[in-house]
Amino acid sequence: QYVYQFLNMMKHAWDNYRQYGWGHNELKPIARKGHSTNIFGNSQMGATIVDALDTLYIMGLHDEFREGQEWIDKNLDFSVNSEVSVFEVNIRFIGGLLAAYYLSGQEVFKIKAVQLAGKLLPAFNTPTGIPWAMVNLKSGVGRNWGWASAGSSILAEFGTLHMEFVHLSYLTGDPVYYNKVMHIRKLLQKMDRPNGLYPNYLNPRTGRWGQHHTSVGGLGDSFYEYLLKAWLMSDKTDTEARKMYDDAIEAIEKHLIRKSNGGLTFIGEWKNGHLERKMGHLTCFAGGMFALGADGSRDDKAGHYLQLGAEIAHTCHESYDRTTLKLGPEAFKFDGGVEAVAVRQNEKYYILRPEVIETYWYMWRFTHDPKYRQWGWEATQAIDKYCRVSGGFSGVKDVYSSSPTYDDVQQSFFLAETLKYLYLLFSNDDLLPLDNWVFNTEAHPLPVLHLANTTLSGNPAYR
Ligand code: DMJ
Fold first, then answer.
1. Which residues in the chain land under pLDDT 50?
2. Pick the catalytic residue: 51, 83, 221, 240?
3. Ligand 1 pocket, 414 CB below 6 A?
4. Whether residue 67 lies in the annotated active site
5. CA nearest to 184, candidates 157, 151, 145, 218
6. Residue of 91, 216, 407 to test ligand 1 pocket, by largest number of atoms within 8 Å of CB
7. What would the pLDDT profile of 308-344 be if each residue is shown by its tens digit?
8. For the CA atoms of the chain, what is the radius of gyration?
């Protein structure tokens, strides 16, 4: 009966978006109108529709899926004068469209994904081939975020294109996408890494690192995830990616992973030579990643990585359990007596993020320990109690306050990821088995490619 709860939540999120935000990127569930942020430029590209499609499909909400498909067919247009985030558009739109295509077989999704990818390609026209963070879909002019260190591009952005771009080359027979992401990989391989760690910032003009900050949370996270998943989606033939993952994780374990006084394993952040004992909600995805990478690990350390995944899951559950709302804060500290608790006011929010539930799901798949379902159910009840409003679902500004205020945003990743991972957590393992599917960083499932050789050069289409 659990799955009905998730169907009900998905329907509530979708129906309200359809009623009040249709065609806009996201929904403001309290103001009951459309919402957007700068990652989507000034466009109305229906981000929620594209992000939600595969979740609707998996849940069997076929009428809603068809509505979404119809909107995409008739209205989704990329020839707009709008400056968008290359990374966000890739993981949400290209990933969402490709997953919808693979699940449903409907050509329109593939066609739109390829059109959109063509619009992103000018972002790679930099002196190094490291793409700009943003590109204008109409003019093709690219630039970087003003806040990024020394004009740099961001590791988690240019390093989170691989899965989708390899699939684009596979589906179209055009190697251009594959070549772009392999060029990034080759360039990264050649660079020196301080302490074996990848800094979060790389300047696309000079090819030099920016500030020496390293994070498994925001700005770094999905780069590591995509190294592992590149190997998995190649049917484990892309051993170069697996090696890069193993090397990176070894350095991360050595320099960033510690145990708190209270015995909680956490992943800190490296900032100019010292460890900041703070972990982000985003970092919690790493529990699932360690578990997913356990099989095939160097020196046969599968047990060790599964254990590490379990410890991260436990720590992240504690970050939820130590709040008033039983929802996790954006960031939490392990310092001066503080354990898994947010200290700064502006780190106490919960914006419907998926990472902790994502880790519960992977841990469930690999261990079937019932505590992961129990923890997922606790989070579900908290979301339903504190984030559900009559016009949809909203983030909350302070998880330690018993009378929280809303941020009035229904994030598209809530439908793409949070509800999908919850649904999968309570479904059988034969729904999207991990031997056949690899989830992109926005939880869009893409099939394992059974190619003899991941350089694609073995495939006649690429010779
Ligand atoms: C999502 O867009 C993706 O999971 C991304 O990798 C990180 N941030 C959000 C969810 O929190």
1. 453-455, 457-463
2. 221
3. no
4. no
5. 157
6. 91
7. 999 999 999 999 999 999 999 999 999 989 999 999 9
8. 21
Nearest CA to ligand 1 atom 4: 442
CA dihedral over 4, 35, 220, 335, signed as positive or negative: negative
The answer, yes or no, to whether any atom of ligand 1 lies below 6 A from the CB of 413, is: yes
Q: How many CA atoms are closer than 13 Å to the CA of 120, on its beta-carbon side?
A: 30
198 lines ligand 1 (CB under 6 A): no
Structure tokens at 35: 């919402």
Most distant CA pair in the chain, distance: 62
Decide if 355 is catalytic: yes
Q: Which of 26, 64, 318, 330 is catalytic?
A: 330
Give the integer Cα–Cα distance in Å for 203 and 62: 45
Report how far residue 378's alpha carbon sits from residue 320's, in angstroms, rounded to the nearest whole number.
9
- Note the pLDDT tens digit of each residue in 95-120: 999 999 999 999 999 999 999 999 99
Q: Which amino acid would we find at residue 300?
A: D
Q: Tell me how far the alpha carbon of residue 308 is from its chain's centroid.
A: 20
pLDDT of res. 150 = 86
Rounded-to-integer distance, Cα 141 and Cα 163, Å: 24
Residue 353, ligand 1, Cβ within 6 A: yes
Active-site pick, 51, 64, 88, 238: 88
330 among known catalytic residues: yes
In sequence order, the 6+-apart residues with CB closer than 8 A to the CB of 233 are 163, 166, 438, 446, 447, 448, 449
Determine the pLDDT at residue 451.
74
The predicted model scores a pTM of 0.97
- Rounded to the nearest angstrom, the gap between the alpha carbon of residue 162 and the centroid of all alpha carbons in its chain is 13
Distance CA 301, CA 75 (A): 50
Please tell me if the CB atom of residue 40 comes closer than 6 angstroms to any atom of ligand 1. no
